[in-house]
From TrEMBL:
It comes from freshwater metagenome. Residues 15-85 form the HTH gntR-type domain. PROSITE patterns: HTH_GNTR. This is Unannotated protein. SMART domains: FCD. Keywords: DNA-binding, Transcription, Transcription regulation. One of its GO terms (molecular function) is DNA-binding transcription factor activity. Pfam families: FCD (PF07729), GntR (PF00392).
Amino acid sequence: MSADPPSRADGGGSPKLASRLAYRIYDDIAASGLAVGEVFGSEPDLIARYGVSRAVFREAIRLLEHWSVAAMRKGHYGGLVVCEPTSGAVRSAALIYLNSRKASAGDLMAVITELQCYAARRAAEVIDDDGAERLRSIVEDEERFRAGDRDGTQVPPGAFRERNLHLAIAAITGNPVLELFDEVTFELSRSIARRRGAFAVAKMHRSHRELVDAIVARDPNAAEAVMRSHLQMIAEAYGPESSEG
């Protein structure tokens, strides 16, 4: 287990006892080298080991479960089991924070442009046959959707994480940091789009075929150029900067 939990700061003042315990347990699990699915210890043993009350211990476990670090399993072979970390907790926390800071479409597009232009270039450098097939499949789904959604009322495939071209390109790079930040900006862009109302999704996806062709052709310069042009199209679709609140 190597993924870090959210920031250890609680927003001001001293962290609560349960929060401090959760981070301590996290550190101990990481140091133990236990694999996903292995048991770190039973509830009675861990309460005794850390010298805390059952209430504090269970609150700490709720935090660990929220972070997808570990979870309690009942039964004879139960205990605190190491989990496979996911990006969900980090993604949700980042989305709440950025929405609370009223991150604008302009803020979002500035970051997206740097991240995704790099992703397009890197994907073109490392893509294999499986990756090329996945990108082609996503574009073909979009084209079939556009052909059938003549009144513009249906939900496009790219609205779903597993069929979003930009997230697929980030995954092809093999860079987990890029994948995580792309997921955060994907969720934030959906949030901003919902607040502003629907806009021409079809227009935003017209250059996807050209983008995929450049990446599959393993042409980093062309891939970056097409991505930059595509993102400018999206920025224009968002419309002029205005109050997001």
